[in-house]
């Protein structure tokens, strides 16, 4: 985050070392940051494409570092996974999101929480989710767990048993960043998935890129055949919206409908859409 400065050529790039050092420092700070309450959750609206009505929200983690300011989630989640802090952080996130969702005046809205592979492999996720539901008193049907496709790369019997048990609790499972992994189709066949979340990279060039239009169409159709719902993420423009509506993608998410926002703004949005 500091610039190397100077502008002169050097044989090796000292910013690499600096970056490494900074990573190491951030890594060491993660655990304390959780205890100091530096993490928050933002909530981004998910809407139904037919009616434009609110379906729910995805909880996205934020870390405001006291010196560096906001650290991008892609960065700190990866660090937290490497250090194992993701276990505590993920637990905090799940409990926080469930408690907040349980407080919403509209009890038809769902909350989606991202789950790391590390949590699937190294914690009793079924126990964790049961406890979060019990403590928050959130109905299981209102909780969605988003799991990235790459997380399944090492999909084994144990993983599918865990997912099956989670589903038996009544929560729903979404396959995140769909299309970016390697063996998406076999996951759809083998794992108990309720929702396919089409990666933003397939949405970004709609409606101009005809190959992407075909791909999105095909995924939505596949979902319908497999009795799974589909959602497009990263919808930013009216043209993308029109295209996705025409395709019949049931759920949409992106800056066009709203950016991730804090609890206060999220509650305001829920109350406002309740009155419509
Ligand atoms: P993701 O799960 O794919 O989340 C979607 C990302 O796209 C979010 O980035 C969101 O802010 C961003 N986004 C939403 N709408 C738009 C749009 O219209 N245009 C563009 N350009 N971007 C949009 P964010 O919040 O930076 O999170 C990045 C990633 O960090 C997430 O990707 C997820 O993989 C991870 N992450 C975030 N929160 C958590 C968490 O609580 N637990 C875990 N395990 N991972 C998390
Ligand atoms: Ca997600
Ligand atoms: Ca995603
Ligand atoms: Ca992602």
What does this structure look like?
The chain is built from 10 helices and 9 strands. It starts with 13 loop residues before the first helix and ends with a helix. The radius of gyration is 20 Å and the shape is globular. Strands 1-2-4-5-6-7-8-9 form an 8-stranded mixed β-barrel, surrounded by 4 helices. Helix 8 links the parallel strand 7 (195-198) and strand 8. It is of the alpha/beta class. The structure holds ligand C2E and calcium ion (3 copies). One calcium ion is lined by residues 176-177, 197, 233. Residues 23-274 form the EAL domain. It comes from Jiella flava. This is EAL domain-containing protein.
Key features of this structure:
alpha/beta; 10 helices; binds ligand C2E; binds calcium ion; EAL domain-containing protein
Short description:
Residues 23-274 form the EAL domain. The protein is an alpha/beta fold and 276 residues long.
Order of helices and strands: HEEEHHEHHEHEHEHEHEH
Secondary-structure class: alpha/beta
Radius of gyration: 20 Å
- Total of helices: 10
What's the total count of β strands? 9
Query: Which range best describes the helical content: under 10%, 10-25%, 25-40%, 40-55%, 55-70% or over 70%?
Result: 40-55%
Protein name: EAL domain-containing protein
Organism: Jiella flava
